[in-house]
Amino acid sequence: MPRPRFDGGRLVLIVDVSPWLRSDAPCSAERLFCHVYGRAKTASRFIPGWPYSFVAVLEPGATSWTAILDAVRLGPVDDATAVTEADLRGVVERLIAVGQWQAGDPDIVIVSDAGYDVTRLAWVLRDLPVELVGRVRSDRVMRLPKLPRVYDPKGGRPPKRARNSASPTRRRGPSPRSPRSPQPPTTARPRRRHGIGSPPDSDRRPKTPASAARANAR
């Protein structure tokens, strides 16, 4: 059965963990406390259940339909990254064996959430035709250092817990700004006879008769 594909015939897989909550089964073995959202008004909760790691195929377009390819239950002593690596390797090898991916096709894209160690997964799956895309954690700060408050009185969002991180694949930005003296505003485009105009200083502005009389009275 053919799998959904994106533009160019590329397969896109997603890996995630979904809990099967069983708070009413006190005698069930190997249950874990699953971190869930949306079941309390002000905070998340920990509910006993079994977490399942699954691999699914994404469909293009504005749809939420997915095709589940495999699911593995996580035990109390299982390493989530090791289980995910074995699950992804088995799914990709089966897709190649049944002809869903052939030589010359685009690499299979695997999308993961911020909780996965994408760097480790990319290393252990380097022998497979896959590309991993992971979401960056919210506490990663990839920007220039925050300016001192004397130069930036409006402030800004400081880093939470992480230091400034530089992406090796992106071009580095400019050096941190230094305080500059305010420049007079200029016109948007140069004039044919007068060039780029700027407002004159207040001391050099032509004085009206009323302003001249006030200056002489002083």
TrEMBL record:
Disordered: annotated segments: 147-218
Listed transmembrane segments: none
SUPFAM superfamilies: Ribonuclease H-like
Biased composition (Basic residues): 157-174
One protein family per Pfam: DDE_5
Pro residues biased stretches: 176-187
Ranges of residues in domain Transposase IS701-like DDE: 2-168
Name by which UniProt lists this protein: Transposase IS701-like DDE domain-containing protein
Organism: Streptomyces lavendofoliae
